[in-house]
UniProtKB/TrEMBL annotation:
<dbReference type="InterPro" id="IPR008822">
    <property type="entry name" value="Endonuclease_RusA-like"/>
</dbReference>
<dbReference type="GO" id="GO:0006310">
    <property type="term" value="P:DNA recombination"/>
</dbReference>
<dbReference type="InterPro" id="IPR036614">
    <property type="entry name" value="RusA-like_sf"/>
</dbReference>
<dbReference type="Pfam" id="PF05866">
    <property type="entry name" value="RusA"/>
</dbReference>
<dbReference type="GO" id="GO:0000287">
    <property type="term" value="F:magnesium ion binding"/>
</dbReference>
<dbReference type="GO" id="GO:0006281">
    <property type="term" value="P:DNA repair"/>
</dbReference>
<protein>
    <submittedName>
        <fullName>RusA family crossover junction endodeoxyribonuclease</fullName>
    </submittedName>
</protein>
Length: 148
């Protein structure tokens, strides 16, 4: 299992932007998303396996958004304990898109290898993203399919 933490305020994947140059349309990532992916890639490279992971993978991502300044002491305590969870935008899938893109060719070959995904949003005084990647045994997966 590969586990690491990306400290700082989490950035969700922004909508792709388009520009035209010479009559051609060029699609690109917004600067904030692009910079965050580079940061994630840099942190993940410290945990890079000797050989890129292959086969089916499980990805667990915990997004810790900054606690809101408007929170009372009671709300801050509930947020730190995981009792008060963010239900505001951005969506969890927008956070995980950027993480998955950043880990391509660093931890795994392609994010299509992820067959099991779990993403959670929390509040914290220490904003961060915790990432855990685990290889799944093909035999285990096939056995569970047969037993169902």
């Amino acid at each position: 299992m590969i586990e690491f933490t990306v400290y700082g305020t989490p950035v969700a994947q922004g909508r792709p932007r388009a520009s035209t140059r010479g009559g051609f349309v060029k699609m690109y990532d917004p600067k904030k998303s692009k910079d965050f992916k580079q940061y994630v890639k840099l942190v993940a490279s410290e945990y890079k396996p000797d050989q890129l992971l292959s086969g089916p993978l499980q990805l667990d991502v915990k997004v810790f958004k900054p606690t809101l300044k408007s929170f009372s002491k009671k709300k801050k305590l509930e947020a730190e304990q995981g009792l008060l969870r963010p239900i505001s935008k951005p969506d969890v899938d927008n956070y995980v898109k950027g993480i998955k893109d950043a880990l391509n060719k660093v931890i795994w070959n392609d994010d299509s290898q992820i067959v099991d995904l779990h993403v959670s949003k929390f509040y914290s005084e220490t904003p961060r993203i915790e990432v855990a990647v685990q290889m799944l045994e093909v035999q285990q997966e096939q056995m569970s399919l047969l037993s169902n």
